[in-house]
Every structure is written in C-alpha cells, then in structure tokens.
Amino acid sequence: MRETPADAEIPSHQLMLRAGLIRKLAAGVYNYLPLGLKVLRKFENIVRAEMNLAGAQEVLLPTLAPASLWRQTGRWEAYGPELMRITDRHKREFALGPTHEEVITDLVRREVKSYRQFPLTLYQIQTKFRDEIRPRFGVMRGREFGMKDAYSFHTNQDDLDKTYWEMYEVYSNIFKRCGLKFQAVEAESGPIGGSSSHEFMVLAGNGEDLILACPKCHYAANREKTPVGYLKPASQEQLPLTKVATPGQRTIAEVSAFLKVQPSAMIKTLLYQGDGQTVAALIRGDRTLNETKLKNHLKVSTLVLANETTVREVTGAETGYAGPFNLGKTPIVADLSLAGRDNLVSGANENNFHYQNVNAGRDFRVEAYVDLANAEENDPCPKCEGTLSEMRGIEVGHIFKLGTKYSAALNATFLDEKGEAKPIIMGCYGIGTGRTIAAAIEQNHDENGIIWPLPIAPYQVVLTSLDPKYPEVNKASERIYRELILKNVDVIWDERDERPGVKFKDADLLGIPIRINIGKRKLREGKVEIRLRHDQSCFELSPIEVISRVQELIQTLSP
Ligand SMILES: [Zn+2]
User: Fold this and answer.
1) Distance from residue 213's CA to the centre of ligand 1 (Å)
2) How many Å lie between the centroid of ligand 1 and the Cα of residue 159?
3) Which residues are within 8 A (CB) of 34 and not within 5 positions of it... i.e. 6 or more apart?
4) Letter string b/e over residues 192-205, b meaning 16 or more CB atoms within 10 A of that residue's CB
5) Quick one: which of 165, 187, 71, 212 has its CA closest to 427?
6) What average pLDDT is seen over the chain?
7) Upstream peptide bond of 119 is cis (omega within 30 degrees of 0)
8) How many angstroms separate the alpha carbon of residue 223 from the centre of ligand 1?
9) Count of C-beta atoms within a 10 Å radius of residue 559
C-alpha cells in the first residue's frame, strides 16, 4: 500500500498493512499474507526451540471447549462477555478458548496420577478467541489471535517455584534471541488468578503500559504494582481553620497560583463510586491517583469517578470545591502522601471557597491511609536507595503461579508417596505471537518502514536487480541468489521490472536487514553494493566476496 490506511492508529498496524503482512477480514480478525506468516513462523520456531530446550512438551488442544468444564471452574459466568460462546445443533454450549486452563487440567487429571510422573510442562501454539469490545491496533488487540500457552504441573510449591523461574529464563532467552529490548516486571494476576506473576514487556516509546524500573537493583514493576514511599514530614503547629474566597478557582493549579501555596500543600478530594457506593479518596495535590490501587484497596469490581450530580449531593458544591468535611456516611481513604501533613489547603464544600490550615483528625476523619498514588519518574525505589525511571512497553508475555485454583475446582489430584490424593499445583505461561511481532515493529521502525531484527525478519537478505533486462545483471543476480540459497541464507530476489527507486522504497518498507544491489554500471566496474537497513550503511565489494560477507553480516546481526 502506498498510503497509510485511515483506520490504522499505531505504526505497527499501519506498517503491517502497508508492507503486506496482514489484511483485515472483520473487526479484530486478520489474514496473514505470505510475508506476515514467514515472520510469525520464525517467531513461533524460536519459542518452540526454547520451550523444548527447557523440557516442555508440545501438544495441540482443541479450540472448542465444552461449557460444562468452564462451569466447573466458575469461569463460564465470571469471564463475562469477552468469552466467545457457541451452541451446536444439539443445543450443547461451547467456549471458543481464550485460554486453556480448564481443558489441560481435565486432560492431566485423566492421564497423570502418580507423584512419580511429576513435574510436567505442556505447551501449545494455537489460535485463541476473545470478544474484545473494541478491537484495535491490528493484531495487537484482535478478537482471534495466536498464542503460545504453557501449563506446568507439580506435587509441591518448591517444584512450582523452580519451574516458574525456569520459565522466566526461557522467556528472557526468547526475547533476547529475537533481538528485542524487553523488561520483565512484577504484575497483577488479573482474571487468571494465582499468587505471583511477571509480565514481559517489549519496550516501545508509545507502549500502552507504564513501567517503573530501578537501574541500581533491577527492580521493575507496572505502575499499579509500584509502591510509593514518602519521607516522614516534620510536624507543624496546627493553625486555626480559615475559610478563604477562591472565586472561579477549581483546579489544583488554579488554586495553587491564586493562594500562592505549593500543590504539595493541598488536598485533592476525589469522589468515586465503587460497586455503586460513594467513597472519597484524598491525595496530595502534586500526585495523581492510581485507580487500580484504589480498586484493590476497596475490593470492588467496578470503580468510576462520581458524576457531577453525586458530587453536588454529597458535598453540596460543584466539582472543584470538594473537601473531606461533613460527608456523612461516605467513607474517606487517604493516600500515604497526606499522612502526618499539617495545615493543608482543601475545597470547602461550598462554591468559590477553600479552607486553609486543614488538619486530618481535627477537621475530618480518615478511615485509612493507604498507597493510592501513581509512581513517577525519580520516586525512590521500593527495594533500594536508587530512584525509579519510567519507560513504556507492550505486554507480550505473562507468567503466573496458579497454585491449586484450577485443580481444586476440577478435582485434579495425584497420589503421593503414602497413596493419599492431593490437588495438583499448577503454573501457566503465555506469549502472544502476533502481538510480539506487532510490538517488535513498534520498537523497530522509522519513517520509511519496518527495521526487522534479523532473527524474525521475513527474509535475511533482499537481492535487488537494478537493471534486470540486462543479461549480465540477470546472470550475476541469479548466480548470487543460488549460492546464497545453497548456504541456507533466507533470501528474496526482487527481479521485478520496476524503477530502482520503487524497489528501494519497497525494500525499506519491508525492512529486510541486508540488501544487495546489483546494477549494470557498478557490475561493469566489477562491483556490487551491500546496504544495511538498520543504519543505512553502504559499501561496495566484488561479486566473489558477496557470499562470505553476507554470512559474516548475518552472524553480526544475530543476537
Ligand atoms: Zn532499586
């Protein structure tokens, strides 16, 4: 495609369409074209090789999973509308698998009985389904997508821990082998459940996840998992509460400028509805609130900011003048940033008024001080004396310790040394295959197109004949092409009857790492040209040297 498609919002989606890797069939459903499939298969083969090396065994489970199995774990209801469901002609219900814990646990409970048969790790590379409410970003967030999912089975927790960290290594090796910059982070377990989990992020400037990492101790976590610590403030003498007029001043920035106080000396009062119940959340004016942290603290499943009407009902004032006073039954939780701080500024629950010298305990009651703030760049590291830096990433892998969540629900047991039945202990480990490819493009592209890391490039080399109608050019090109193939170099030969400019533009768009240009004029001087996509470096050499030089370059460009 010459033009950027209008409905493609992010570079990877635009470039996958423009370079002819994928085509859309329906919302969130894509065809892989030959070049796209080559990339996908190369990535899958790296995943397969590393999984096999770690002793995991490949299986292939069906996409159709009987509803009865999903009902046994409670997920038929709990998964909600994202679970794709179908009913067959006999009115039997099935799920189109978004993940396979139920199916694999059912398989293992039937086949594996004795403690002697553990541990066991099984994986598959397969198509999954999820009825995304708003599929977007191409294969990054589709409704039908490729995944490698692995499940491990154990007789005790120590054994699970061992496999969990082995898989952590396997995942690190996979992304290293692909030539991708990545970061493993501590993560929330989400709807799959379990006690401990890590996400693997491919780093990219416009990635949707915000990560905080400490360069000193290698701590890294998602923003919602990063605790924020504060120095204990020196206590001040509490001054009398004073009401001040602040006409038309609503935001922290406005009030801060108007009253000449720092945002860090102000209270932001936010009203939320958690499962329909109103709660007031207080945070220091210079920090922002993380809704996942608040949601976890309140143990609610839905959390939304209260609307204007509720704010007026609860506080008696418009948004912008809310304060923690006389809120009746509305509970107040406060961020740790406010603990021990005296003489602050807050809204007065009256339009166009604020209070100065507000003090918790004396002027209002806080139910709990908890960590509710978004961690930010330069915050102290929670594990050492270092400071955190911010980076963005795209989640491509996730590993979990499941424990007995699924085996208990499905009665999957083994017999221990004494012949007693015990629930099997499980772990699970996923990588989005199509998603990783899209993330690789997000990380590696420029204004001209994709810049593939060599291990997952559709071809290692593109051989461009500049004047293919001349027999000497054609002959030299074909000889080099055949020799490269004999040396197992993955090469595509562009012998189209097109102008050199068109071919160069296409080669840059496709992002093949090594380009060999063969033209009439240079060939008569006994020279061909090699050009590298990643740094546009370019050099000439004789046709005889090309093969060994390309082999060297492949070595250098492989991580
Ligand atoms: Zn640290």
Assistant:
1) 8
2) 28
3) none
4) bbbebbbbbbbbbe
5) 165
6) 94
7) yes
8) 15
9) 11
Give the separation between CA 198 and CA 184, rounded to whole angstroms.
6
* 193 contacts 405 by C-beta, under 8 angstroms: yes
Closest CA to 391 of 210, 243, 527: 210
Return residues with CB closer than 5 A to ligand 1 (ion): 214, 216-217, 219, 381, 383-384, 386
State the Cα angle at 473 between 472 and 476, rounded to 5°.
80
- How remote is the CA of residue 220 from the centroid of ligand 1, in Å? 8
Instruction: Characterize the bridge pairing of strands 491-494 and 461-465.
Output: parallel
Q: How confident is the model at residue 7 (pLDDT cuts 50, 70, 90)?
A: confident
Q: Quick one: which H or E segment has residue 515?
A: strand 514-518
**d(C-alpha 123, C-alpha 163), whole Å:** 13
Residues 428-477: pLDDT tens digits?
A: 999 999 999 999 999 999 999 999 999 999 999 999 999 888 999 999 99
Beta bridge partners of 464: 494, 517
In this structure, the number of other CB atoms found within 10 A of the CB of residue 35 comes to: 19
pLDDT, mean of residues 294-298: 93
Ligand 1 center to residue 387 CA distance, Å? Answer: 7
Q: What is the pTM of this model?
A: 0.86
Give me ligand 1 centre to Cα 427, in Å: 28
Q: By the 8 A CB rule, do 173 and 50 touch?
A: yes
Going from the N-terminus, what domains does the chain have, and what CATH number goes with each?
11-62+97-227+390-441 (3.30.930.10), 242-370 (3.90.960.10), 459-557 (3.40.50.800)
56-76: b (≥16 Cβ within 10 Å) or e: beeeebebebbbebbebbebb
Of 263, 81, 182, the residue nearest 440 (C-alpha): 182
Q: What is the DSSP string of 7-40?
A: T--SHHHHHHHHTTSEEEEETTEEEEPHHHHHHH
How far is the C-alpha of 250 from the C-alpha of 242, rounded, in Å?
Answer: 18
Find out whether 160 and 196 touch, Cβ atoms under 8 Å: no
